[in-house]
């Protein structure tokens, strides 16, 4: 369990050793932002282990070791090898302006739906909650949620000229 003196001691340690530890982190990853993330993660791990660390003379070495092992584990991840490229691949999908227009149309149509129906639709389809979870959040029964969603979707379909179904809602929300 951490005490106020532990927090103060850790703060002193972190303030005193951060420049040196940052240099180590930078040399491990050769990127300023990644080095900051690496140092932050190492300091968090050191803070978590702080109550178990009795030899305070070796704290910097302990944290440096965390930096090294964490950077190695980062490098093993497949996503770490991804680097930005100079040329972007050609877009396969449609025009992003169309997605923005569709999103704005859905929002405008959603604003025409009464608040409880809108809440039910947003919770069910945008947040992907079950009917039971939606009912709990709205403080109503599952049957009332089904009714609200049905009435709200009917109103949205009318706004879109009958071309709105669940797959259309999912596609349009995915673009938002």
What do you see in this structure?
By secondary structure, the chain is mostly helical. The chain has eight helices and no strands. It has two domains: 4-79, Orthogonal Bundle (Rna Polymerase Sigma Factor, Chain: A); 96-174, Orthogonal Bundle (Arc Repressor Mutant, subunit A).
Task: Compose a concise summary of this entry.
The chain is mostly helical and 176 residues long. Helix content is 70%, strand content 0%.
What is the CATH C-level name of the largest domain? Mainly Alpha
Q: Which stretches of 5+ consecutive residues score pLDDT under 50?
A: 170-176
| N to C succession of SSEs | HHHHHHHH
CATH topology of the largest domain: Arc Repressor Mutant, subunit A
List keywords for this structure.
2 domains, Rna Polymerase Sigma Factor, Chain: A, Arc Repressor Mutant, subunit A, 8 helices
Outline the secondary-structure elements.
Elements: H1 4-29, H2 32-49, H3 59-76, H4 96-110, H5 115-126, H6 131-138, H7 142-159, H8 166-174
